[in-house]
Write a structure and sequence with these properties.
Number of strands: 11
Number of helices: 0
Length: about 120
């Protein structure tokens, strides 16, 4: 069992930065992949950034490459998403997710079996 709790969302103006955090409780060593996903009203949940826990290899959606950075702490009990140069189209509910199985599509939401409650990010122009 893995419990995830996001924090750090908020409302900012375009061009500013935010850092999201995800606290991982339970059995963090059992997770192969962790990541950040987002869902805007009326849209499907999409992968933003994910990380393979063992190596730290990161995967990014094309829409956030060069602006967002995913990271984890050495104890693997926290996951972060540094978001820079935010745009209005980044507005969404952001979710932290974990997968306890090996997956071949790291940015695919259905492959993740643990989810946090989400934190809202609103970017105004």
């Amino acid at each position: 069992q893995v419990q995830l709790q996001e924090s750090g969302g908020g409302s900012v103006q375009a061009g500013r930065s935010l850092t999201l955090s995800c606290a991982v409780d339970g059995n963090p060593v059992s997770t192969y992949y962790m990541g950040w996903f987002r869902q805007a009203p009326g849209k499907e949940r999409e992968g933003v950034a994910t990380i393979y826990r063992a190596s730290g290899r990161a995967y990014y959606a094309d829409s956030v490459k060069g602006r967002f950075a995913i990271s984890q702490d050495n104890s693997k009990t926290f996951l972060y998403l540094q978001m820079n140069s935010l745009k209005p189209e980044d507005t969404a509910m952001y979710y932290c997710a974990a997968s306890t199985i090996m997956i071949i599509e790291p940015l695919s939401a259905p492959k993740y079996n643990y989810w946090g409650q989400g934190t809202q990010v609103t970017v105004s122009s």
